[in-house]
Amino acid sequence: MSFAKVVKKEILEHDIQDSQEALAFMSSLFRACGSLSRSSQGLCAELVTDCRDLFSFVDKLTKRLYGENLKLSLYDDHIINKTIYYRIAFPSSISFTILTDCGVLERNSEGIEINQKPDSNLLCDENTKIAYLKGAYIGCGTSSIKLSQLGSKMPTTGYHVEFPSKHREFLESVQELLQNFDISAKIATRKSTFVLYIKDSESIKDLLALFGAVSSVFDLTNEMATRELRNTINRQINCINANISKTVEASLKQVEAINLINKKIGLDSLPDDLQEVAVLRLANQQESLDELLKLSTLKLTKSGLNHRFRRILKIAQLLKGE
Question: For the chain, which domains are there?
Answer without folding.
Answer: 3-212 (3.10.28.10), 247-321 (no CATH)
